[in-house]
Design brief:
Its EC number is 2.6.1.11. Pathway: Amino-acid biosynthesis; L-arginine biosynthesis; N(2)-acetyl-L-ornithine from L-glutamate: step 4/4. InterPro entries: Ac/SucOrn_transaminase_bac, AcOrn/SuccOrn_fam, Aminotrans_3, Aminotrans_3_PPA_site, Class-III_PLP-dep_AT, PyrdxlP-dep_Trfase, PyrdxlP-dep_Trfase_major, PyrdxlP-dep_Trfase_small. By secondary structure, the protein is of the alpha/beta class. It has 2 domains: 150 residues, Aspartate Aminotransferase, domain 1; 229 residues, Type I PLP-dependent aspartate aminotransferase-like (Major domain) (Aspartate Aminotransferase, domain 2). The protein is 39% helix and 18% strand. The chain has 14 helices and 17 strands. It has a 7-stranded mixed β-sheet with strand order 4-12-11-10-7-5-6, with helices on both faces. The chain has a 4-stranded mixed β-sheet with strand order 1-2-3-15. A 4-stranded antiparallel β-sheet has the order 13-14-17-16. A hairpin with a 4-residue loop joins strand 16 and strand 17. Helix 3 runs antiparallel to helix 11 and helix 4 runs parallel beside helix 11. The protein is globular. The N and C termini lie far apart (47 Å).
Length: 404
């Protein structure tokens, strides 16, 4: 076995077939560049699905991880640890929150948020106030609870019966929410920008209206900022741009810059409902993950970095507009900051992955957001010259796919 080549074919031999990874296997990353087993170089505009906020092997993150690994790896939740406490303090200082719960992923952070919302209403109102409203096309994770809250039926198929007490209405449709919400609603859950649902931002009026309806019915407002958080939109968290504060916020992906970590943030009065033994995570608050996240947050929270995100986003948009002027391939380019989605015209609907594959063949890594949207979620500090180089390669890929 030790002599067997590590190839893409080995994936099919030993891995559960729930993924369909590309043919190339990356072995090294530096900044926004990646190299595969054959030494081929790629420009990374995928960011590990909006995770690699500072690119690959950022020296400050490598230093934080190395230093922590030489001291303390793990203690579980039986004891606290210094990186966990420092990170929690920074998150509360930088946001609306008073309290933090650490997990390993966005799904786990959302699981904690949904459980907290139900328990808070159970304690403070009644057991009947347990209904959760989410939005069609939303995505909140792959656990059974989170996949049921998510508004995409394809992810629930075959895993029924679904968790009870969850309903869905259309995103950006305030009238639909108003018709559904009631005094039995314990929480409304939303992404400020739907990620997997196609990079669809909430309108200002909608997000303000959702907050008002939650207040009216004494329901908690949960923002899933797993994808939009930690500088992705040019604000540390997207709620700060909207000027609308949630009761609970979840964050992951960019929070660890590639090291698995998630967190749920909330007010102190709500947090009281998670008393000792009501929820937990063996790895949550892991010293290494928290040390990396702390170093990343110190960088990303700087105003010049956040301002740079917005400037770099305009550079991406400029390239996409030029491509569209030539090919008329996108109905629109939407999103915020460095979370951008280019929706394909009707003729190319369902073929977003063709653009991903064509781009990879030209040496640039991009994403899809559903079958109709090409997604870009690069490092927040990607060099301008590399943006130009990578988007020139993407333009060449489009030329080859749709005809120069």
């Amino acid at each position: 076995m030790t002599d067997q080549p590590v190839t893409r074919a080995l994936f099919d031999e030993v891995m559960v077939p729930n993924y369909a990874p590309g043919k190339m296997i990356p072995v090294k990353g530096e900044g926004s560049r990646v190299w595969d087993q054959e030494g081929n170089e790629y420009i990374d505009f995928a960011g590990g699905i909006a995770v690699s906020a500072l690119g690959h092997a950022h020296p400050k993150l490598v230093e934080a991880l190395t230093n922590q690994a030489q001291n303390l790896w793990h203690v579980s939740n039986v004891l606290a640890n210094e990186p966990m406490l420092r990170l929690a303090k920074k998150l509360t200082d930088l946001t609306f929150a008073d309290k933090v719960f650490f997990a390993n992923s966005g799904a786990e952070a959302n699981e904690a948020a949904f459980k907290l919302a139900r328990r808070y209403c159970w304690e403070n109102f009644s057991p009947e106030k347990n209904e959760i409203i989410a939005f069609n096309s939303s995505f909140h994770g792959r656990t059974l609870f989170t996949v049921c809250v998510g508004g995409q039926a394809k992810y629930r198929e075959g895993f029924e019966p679904a968790v009870d007490g969850i309903s869905h209405v259309d995103f950006n449709d305030l009238a639909a929410l108003e018709a559904k919400i009631s005094d039995k609603t314990c929480a409304v859950v939303m992404e400020p920008i739907q990620g997997e649902g196609g990079i669809k931002p909430a309108t200002q009026a909608f997000i303000e209206g959702v907050r008002a309806l939650c207040d009216k019915h004494k329901a908690l407002l949960i923002f899933d900022e797993v994808q939009t958080g930690v500088g992705r939109t040019g604000h540390l968290y997207a709620y700060q741009k909207y000027g609308v504060t949630p009761d609970i916020l979840t964050t992951a992906k960019s929070l660890g810059g590639g090291f698995p970590i998630g967190a749920m943030l909330t007010r102190g009065d709500i947090a009281k409902s998670l008393t000792i033994g009501t929820h937990g995570s063996t790895y949550g608050g892991n010293p290494m993950g928290c040390a990396v996240s702390e170093a990343l947050l110190d960088i990303v929270s700087q105003q010049d970095v956040l301002d740079g995100v917005l400037a770099k986003a305009e550079r991406f948009r400029g390239h996409l507009e030029k491509i569209n002027e030539k090919h008329h391939i996108f109905t629109e380019v939407r999103g915020d900051g460095l979370l951008l989605g280019a929706e394909l015209v009707d003729e190319w609907k369902g073929k977003a992955k063709d653009f991903l594959n064509a781009a990879l063949a030209e040496g640039v890594m991009v994403l899809v957001a559903g079958p109709n949207v090409v997604r870009f979620a690069p490092s927040l500090v990607v060099d301008d010259a590399l943006i130009d180089q990578g988007m020139a390669a993407f333009a060449k890929a489009v030329d080859g796919l749709v005809g120069a």
